[in-house]
Amino acid sequence: MRIDILTLFPKMFETPFSVGILKRAIDRNLASLNLHNIRDHTHDKHRTVDDYPYSGGPGMVLKPEPIFETVESIKSEILPEDETDDLPIILLTPQGRLFSQQITRELSNYDHLILICGHYEGVDERVREHLVTDEISIGDYVLTGGELPAMVVTDAVVRLLPGVLGSEASPQEESHANGLLEYPQYTRPEVFRGWFVPQVLLSGNHAQITQWRQEQVIRRTLKRRPDLLDRTNLDPAERQLVERLTSSPKKSKLNLDKESIK
Ligand code: ADE
């Protein structure tokens, strides 16, 4: 997959793209991450990228010309046979649709993405109306710019690409993969400061382990993010478990109330 990122601060991406799994994905040619400084597509002496909003108001607005020109220069590099009408051009903005694992999966199916990092008080509305095809927010809070959100989107998407995680992790089993939270994980030592690993995990009984993990997924999601249960297609066994944990008058016996969030 190729991801082109339009930013005023390409330096911000240096470390995240040069370590760990993202670096490995780049080195193995599974992902090519290209940074474009919007300022390189200005034509005046001061390399102006922003201007005052018409009819006043706080802050500055990113001008449309350098953003359009940067995207057009990226498109001109694409070979005609690789050209698609559905190339996503995504603006990172707090006004966008809320980013999720589902959107991550959706984006990971494309061969090419263009991400535009917004800044200042905003971006000239014509960029929204006539250039971008999608707008994404990473949460209901306002950051100083779209760079961190672009890193979040890139990281989440690249790790889903075939071959990126290798055999060391399964994107199928992690939190949010099936819409629910992940079960607790333990590693050695078996006893740490008097705290034991749950006995079932040491039993070698795979059926019991699977059942325990399924139950933990439901308990955890119920406790921390009950909203996710309403949005997920549970299988009959999971549905039954939710009903048992929520409707039982002996709920406390199941320790639901006691499970604390650390
Ligand atoms: N730019 C500033 N805040 C943002 C957010 N929460 N999501 C995406 N882009 C942003």
Give structural notes.
The protein is α/β, with parallel strands linked by helices and 262 residues long. It has 2 domains: 157 residues, SPOUT methyltransferase, trefoil knot domain (Alpha/beta knot, 3-Layer(aba) Sandwich), CATH 3.40.1280; 84 residues, tRNA(m1g37)methyltransferase, domain 2 (Trp Operon Repressor, Chain A, Orthogonal Bundle). Helices cover 35% and strands 16% of the residues. The protein has 10 helices and 10 strands. The chain has a 5-stranded parallel beta sheet with strand order 2-1-6-5-8. It is elongated and about 70 Å long. The model has no long low-confidence stretch (mean pLDDT 92). The structure holds adenine. Adenine binds next to strand 5.
- Spans of 5+ residues with little confidence (pLDDT < 50)? none
The strand count comes to 10
Order of helices and strands: EHHEEEHEHEEHEHEEHHHH
Q: What is the helical fraction, as a range of percent? A: 25-40%
Secondary-structure-derived class: alpha/beta
Question: Based on the structure given, which CATH architecture of the largest domain is correct?
Answer: 3-Layer(aba) Sandwich
Question: How many domain modules?
Answer: 2
Q: Ends: how far apart?
A: 37 Å
So, the CATH homologous superfamily of the largest domain? SPOUT methyltransferase, trefoil knot domain
Q: Shape, please?
A: elongated
Strand order of the biggest β-sheet: 2-1-6-5-8
Query: Please, what is the oligomeric state?
Result: single chain
* Rg from alpha-carbon coordinates: 23 Å
Strand content: 15-25%
Give the CATH level 1 class of the largest domain. Answer: Alpha Beta
| Sheet having the most strands | 5 strands, parallel
Mean pLDDT: 92
CATH topology category name of the largest domain: Alpha/beta knot
Ligands bound to this protein structure: adenine
What is the count of helical runs? 10
